[in-house]
Amino acid sequence: MGALVINHNTSALNTQRNLQVVDKQLKSNLEHLSSGEKVVRAADGPATLMISEQMRAQIASVTQAIANSETSVSMVQTTEAALNEVNRLLISVRQRAIHAANEGANDDNMLMADQLEVQNALASVDRISQFAQFGTKKLLDGSNAVTGIAAGDGLAFIGATEETKQSPAEGYEVRVAQSATQATVIGGKSLTKEVIDSEVVLTIAEGGRTASYRTKEGDDPRVVRQMLQNAIDINGLQVEIGITDGKDANGEVNPEMANRLIVKHKEFGAEPSFTVNSTMAGVLSPAVDKLHSVNNGRDIEGTINGQLAYGTGRILEGAPGTQADGLKVLYRGQTKEDANQPVGRVSVEQNSLIFQIGPNAGQKVSVALGSVNTRTLGFNVDNKSGYRSINDIDVTSAQGAEDAIALVDKAIDDVNVVRATLGAVQKNSLEANIRSLGINHEELVNSESVMRDADMAVEISNLTRNQIIMQSGMAMLSQANQSSKNVLSLLQG
Fold first, then answer.
1. pTM of the shown model
2. 487 domain-assigned
3. C-alpha distance across the termini of the chain, in Å
4. How far is 21 from 19, CA to CA, in rounded Å?
5. Distance between CA atoms of 356 and 122, rounded to whole angstroms?
6. Using the 8-state DSSP alphabet, how is residue 426 labeled?
7. How many domains does the chain have?
């Protein structure tokens, strides 16, 4: 039996300590139930808090990325709608050009009416280019394109993509180690009178088309060249015929090297090729009646900004992953004697539209929108009327109408390429991204819920348990306090 004391009531202290523990648990139960979270403060679960807060940041970012993508879809649809109207106007212009080309049935008044309608349609295209916008952002005035300019003899800017980085102020340096060449063959035998009089059959095949000419007695080398060239032009082969003059590097004439046929592909590079054949060995083909394939053309080789670039014909393109990724330049010159000397520089201004479609840095998609101004559409199309773009077309003459058709066709193709690009971005990048982010958002919320959300049934059970323990503890504290009063009964005797 323990001693009866009054200075210290250890039973009451023990009961009070347990009551404090239960009281703290009760407060925690109330916090979890009122907030709906099982981790209210870091002390509830430091690791869980850190991970779940990172998830909350990601969830908020995914939510915003979905909103960004939806806004971007709206912008793309607005742009595509404007381009659709431009395309409709260009089709109308083409229809007027077709009507104007019907020279036999048109009079001056009809042609003037066609021209007025063409001018009106082109003015509408310019208005769309100037005024199409999303909010206050211009869409088709060229301010959202990748533009460039080349400086250097024989060097020209062809184009760039959304991946091309903006160049420094001095531009990207272009160096050419090997200029592009054409597939070429030079006959091994001169076109002497004896060769020509023997009625040699000369045959050239290119791109699935064939041209041939049989020499005739009395022809001279120039006639043979011209007649073979005529056959080539009629059949649409992409080759041209020349004839050697026999001069060496010093300008001296070697009769044995003169009057040999030269067949050269019009296009540069390693891919274009053709075949030749002659019924006399050496005139074109080395062997009699045996096809000789000519594919000795070479692609341009060089670097852009000191980094790897790929050559196709005379076009040099920056390699993927480089600063000049997607940049294309055309070089018409020859290889410099000093390969360390640049052939020129290209300045690139990157103004592509950039859409942040992901929850993290770098998760973007870009699209370039060029100008649809009539001064840029149908640009660089060969025509007899000298039109530089569809802005210049005049259908009041038959030739003008014919040339207008070619320029408008190019303009329609240019517009449709942009529309197709926008459609691909909307379908494959933006809308697919929205669906993917929706699933991602759902899974993130679910994971964050597992970590942070309180199980209400468990918390209520714990609350009830702790309330009962609290009530029991209060009763026991009363009993512990009663033990000290027993000493008074002894004193009262």
1. 0.71
2. no
3. 21
4. 5
5. 35
6. I
7. 3
Q: What is the token pair recorded at 475?
A: 């009763």
Q: Which two tokens stand for residue 103?
A: 């020279």
Residue 174 domain boundaries = 146-180+300-350
Q: How far apart are CA 335 and CA 30, in angstroms?
A: 83
Tokens of 277: 């054949």
CB–CB of 251/260 below 8 Å?
Answer: no
Residue at 140 is within a domain: yes
Residues of the chain where predicted confidence (pLDDT) is lower than 70: 1-6, 249, 493
Do 276 and 282 form a contact (C-beta atoms < 8 A)?
A: no
pLDDT tens digit sequence for 137-185: 999 998 998 989 999 999 999 889 888 999 999 999 999 999 999 999 9
Of 311, 326, 350, which marks where a domain is finished? 350
- The whole-number pLDDT of residue 88 equals 96
pLDDT by residue (tens digit) across 341-366?
899 999 999 999 999 999 999 899 98
Q: How far apart are CA 454 and CA 450, in angstroms?
A: 8
Structure tokens given for 433: 């991204």
d(CA 165, CA 325): 7
Burial group, residue 318, by CB count within 10 angstroms (0-12, 13-18, 19+): buried
Q: Which helix (H) or strand (E) holds 364?
A: strand 364-367
Q: Are residues 90 and 136 in the same domain?
A: yes
Rounding to the nearest 10 degrees, give the CA dihedral for residues 17, 23, 25, 28. Answer: -140
Q: How far apart are CA 166 and CA 404, in angstroms?
A: 36
